[in-house]
Specification:
alpha/beta, TIM Barrel, two-stranded antiparallel sheet, binds fe (ii) ion
Length: 315
């Protein structure tokens, strides 16, 4: 597994944020040298009975890291069982990479310990902020797309990657409004952060569609504007049409426009691990898995069965 190089003078021991040296050799290889795991599904508690009794041949699972940070107990027992079925990739919601509060190195230490257990090839979280003025807002709030925010988020991302010794992928948000302070479109913002931090991108295709509809931009421009070699994973999900806007609910099948955008993304990014998210109004496992199979079938159409698939790690 390729890992980012170590930073110098990053001041990790005392938790202070200091200017960090850029990584010595930014990677230009596709997927930053990370494997293509195929098409996976989120690991969700209501599916446990089915999964552990039927043992379907899932390409990979994605877990929400924060649900498994405490050692021992039923959650970790079930994680061990899932690890016996398929590779597990970690996705988080609490990093707060854009928050103005200091990075939480106690949290990061627990995240790192979990990563060592799961063997996750990379680790993702959201390009968002979640905390301010001592309050935890429990939401994934978008950032103003400015040069100042690029520098701020990139520096924190480098620190996180160095501490975790793992490639981090930042996920594009779904959003409903924009900031007057924006000085660049979101795709340029995400691209600039990824290049400056030498990190990965978790490209949520549904989020691009939702934001494009809500803000009135062409979603293909978003996909065209990203550094494709940095996309380490895709997300697919369903949304809800509220009439005046689209809401990112993860509560339905992937919509036809998002399937079309997924195909467009594959044609530009290349073959890459794809994960179907479904959280609210969760149906039977086979319904979610059918969505992952549909994603795999589209990838086969795009790549014609050609194109190497890197070997996934042994579960
Ligand atoms: Fe997502």
């Amino acid at each position: 597994m390729q890992r980012p190089g170590r930073l110098q003078g990053a001041g990790l021991q005392d938790g202070l944020i200091r200017p960090a040296a850029p990584l010595a050799t930014p990677s230009r290889s596709p997927r930053l040298g990370l494997p293509d795991l195929g098409c996976g599904v989120g690991l969700r508690v209501p599916h446990y009975t089915h999964l552990f009794s039927q043992r379907p041949r899932v390409d990979f699972f994605e877990i929400v890291s924060e649900n498994f940070l405490v050692e021992g107990g039923p959650p970790r027992d079930n994680l061990e069982r899932a690890l016996g079925l398929a590779p597990v990739v970690q996705h988080g919601v609490a990093l707060g990479i854009g928050s103005t509060t200091p990075l939480d190195f106690d949290y990061l230490a627990r995240l790192k310990a979990l990563a060592r257990r799961t063997g996750t090839p990379w680790l993702t979280d959201h390009l968002s902020w979640t905390r301010a003025a001592g309050a935890e807002l429990h939401d994934l709030l978008p950032l103003p797309c400015t040069e100042e925010a690029v520098r701020y988020v990139a520096e924190r991302t480098r620190l996180v990657q160095d501490f975790l010794e793992l490639r981090v992928g930042l996920e594009n948000p779904s959003s409903y409004v924009t900031f007057r302070a924006n000085t660049m479109p979101e795709w340029e913002f995400l691209a600039a952060i990824a290049d400056e931090a030498d990190c990965g991108i978790l490209l949520d295709v549904n989020n691009v569609h939702v934001s494009a509809k809500n803000q009135g931009f062409d979603p293909r421009r978003y996909l065209d504007g990203l550094p494709h070699h940095r996309v380490v994973q895709l997300h697919l999900a369903g949304h809800t049409d509220k009439g005046t806007h689209l809401l990112d609910t993860h509560s339905a099948e992937v919509s036809e426009p998002v399937w079309a955008l997924y195909r467009y993304a594959l044609e530009r990014v290349g073959r890459v691990s794809t994960l179907v998210e479904w959280d609210d109004a969760l149906p039977a496992f086979d319904v979610v898995w059918d969505e992952a199979k549909k994603a795999a079938a589209i990838a086969e159409e795009v790549f014609g069965g050609a194109g190497p698939r890197a070997e996934p790690p042994t579960p």
